[in-house]
């Protein structure tokens, strides 16, 4: 079975990255994380990468201390990724909206798909503050989704979803924690399905869906 070379883009704590690292190191997930890129110099995900001897790159501020403009960040990130032979780009807690420059660059220059992990049952609740919005709307169900990245925010083809029932006593924080635990199951399972050909990113059928707690 082929080992998939993946790059992970992060902005924060990196708990989903850690799940991928743990499963990779345990031999449970046939991947090789060849790069972790962050737009935040203080992202703890960078420490997780360094602890696992994974090349970690910060694209945050230029030599003058000014934050890179969006196009500058995207061009630099592509320059990092191009020599690595990446098979898949994963957005895991990456809190920066990408433009067609990067999205098309991954497709055309890297010849690789790009997936994003989003904390809602898309197409519902795109964007931010999904847990608060779900509770305000009185939804019975919530969860997380993995989808292909396109120029339209959170609108790419769905690959997989994990679903849970909203509890009557759920608050935004408790619901977030429960969905976060689902993310730790959904992301590695989806990548494993991509590696094994269960999910064909070039010919996607119905999204794979499973129930959580």
Descriptive overview:
This protein is of the alpha/beta class and 213 residues long. The chain has two domains: 1-112, 3-Layer(aba) Sandwich (Rossmann fold); 118-212, Formyl transferase, N-terminal domain (Rossmann fold), CATH 3.40.50.170. It is built from six helices and eight strands. It has helices spanning 15-25, 44-51, 70-81, 100-108, 130-137, 172-196; strands at 4-10, 31-38, 56-58, 88-91, 114-118, 141-148, 158-165, 208-211. It has an eight-stranded mixed beta sheet, with helices on both faces. The protein is globular, with a radius of gyration of 17 Å. It holds the Pfam family Formyl_trans_N. Pathway: Purine metabolism; IMP biosynthesis via de novo pathway; N(2)-formyl-N(1)-(5-phospho-D-ribosyl)glycinamide from N(1)-(5-phospho-D-ribosyl)glycinamide (10-formyl THF route): step 1/1. GO terms for molecular function: phosphoribosylglycinamide formyltransferase activity. It is an enzyme of class 2 (transferase). It catalyses: N(1)-(5-phospho-beta-D-ribosyl)glycinamide + (6R)-10-formyltetrahydrofolate = N(2)-formyl-N(1)-(5-phospho-beta-D-ribosyl)glycinamide + (6S)-5,6,7,8-tetrahydrofolate + H(+).
């Amino acid at each position: 079975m082929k080992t998939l070379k993946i790059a992970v883009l992060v902005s924060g704590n990196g708990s989903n990255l850690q799940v991928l690292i743990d499963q990779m190191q345990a031999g449970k997930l046939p991947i090789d994380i060849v790069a972790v890129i962050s737009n935040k110099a203080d992202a703890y995900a960078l420490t997780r990468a360094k602890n696992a001897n994974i090349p970690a790159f910060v694209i945050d501020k230029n030599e003058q201390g000014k934050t890179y403009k969006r196009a500058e960040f995207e061009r630099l990130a592509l320059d990092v990724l191009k020599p690595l032979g990446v098979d898949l780009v994963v957005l895991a807690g990456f809190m920066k909206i990408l433009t067609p420059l990067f999205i098309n660059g991954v497709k055309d220059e890297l010849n690789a798909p790009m997936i994003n992990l989003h904390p809602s049952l898309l197409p519902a609740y795109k964007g931010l503050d999904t847990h608060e919005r779900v509770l305000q709307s009185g939804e019975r169900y919530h969860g997380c989704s993995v989808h292909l990245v396109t120029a339209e925010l959170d609108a790419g083809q769905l690959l997989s979803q994990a679903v849970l029932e909203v509890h009557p006593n759920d608050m935004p924080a408790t619901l977030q924690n429960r969905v976060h635990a689902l993310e730790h199951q959904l992301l590695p399972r989806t990548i494993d399905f991509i590696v094994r050909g269960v999910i064909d990113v070039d010919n996607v059928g119905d999204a794979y869906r499973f129930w959580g707690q």
